Amino acid sequence: MKEIILNHPLVEHKISILRDKNTGTKEFRELISEITIFLCYEAMKDAKLKKTKTTTPITTCSTNKLDENNYVFVPILRAGLGMVDGILKLIPNAKVGHIGLYRNEETLEPVKYLFKVPKNIQNKEVILLDPMLATGGSACAAIKMLKDEGINNIKFLCIIGVKEGIERIKKEHPDVQIYCAKQDEYLNEVGYIVPGLGDAGDRIFGTK
Ligand code: PRP
Ligand code: URA
Question: Which of 104, 111, 120 is nearest to 70 (CA)?
Fold first, then answer.
């Protein structure tokens, strides 16, 4: 499945501000949230609608509504948490799960510390959220955890990704559609995305 990269001037503009090391925590959070709304808009293009009837002030007509119960959003902690409020603005009744992972700074391997998803979601669409896709280790580990629970309808949304991570997901989980707001150039020797935006978790939570 080919990855979907958002190529849009508005997204480009917001990512430029996000990258700036002088952008403060409040604005950084707001931008993560806004860019996530664009990603969600794109990821919902194939959403199924239920036929309904609506009475307008003029007449009654047939309308179409989303089955909000069909969606489960799963942020990868910590940084993925920054994407949740944006996505819930669009689909406020969606369920939310959590996967806690951090990268071991030396090996860059993901270390799991939390896995909590709503019950009976095997038939739902699960949308995994993480602003950064670097080596792809965290995303692939999270996707595997979801699949081990019997979940097979998964999309992955990230704000900045590099080829290495994108290719890793495509190789290990070819059924997962990737939506990425911007593809960056490369990973440096300590596993950071270049030019990137630094450590997304630290910038969202102001921990550095
Ligand atoms: C960051 C980011 C991803 C991961 C990406 O998390 O939010 O989860 O790194 O890197 P990878 O593709 O090489 O696995 P981090 O480990 O810094 O944890 P944090 O969100 O708690 O800061
Ligand atoms: N995680 C981040 O937060 N930033 C990077 O550049 C790579 C991984």
Answer: 120
Q: Which of 23, 85, 168, 199 is catalytic?
A: 199
Closest-CA residue, ligand 2 atom 4, reads 199
Cα–Cα distances (Å) from 202 to 64, 77, 135, in that order, read: 41, 12, 18
Q: Give me the mean pLDDT over the 36-49 stretch.
A: 96
User: Known catalytic residue: 202?
Assistant: yes
Please check whether residue 52 is in contact with residue 46, taking contact to mean a CB–CB distance below 8 angstroms: no
Torsions phi, psi of 83, nearest 5? -95, -10
pLDDT average, residue stretch 113-128: 96
Question: Which residue's alpha carbon is at the smallest distance from atom 10 of ligand 1?
Answer: 134
Summarize the confidence of residues 178-195 as an average pLDDT: 97
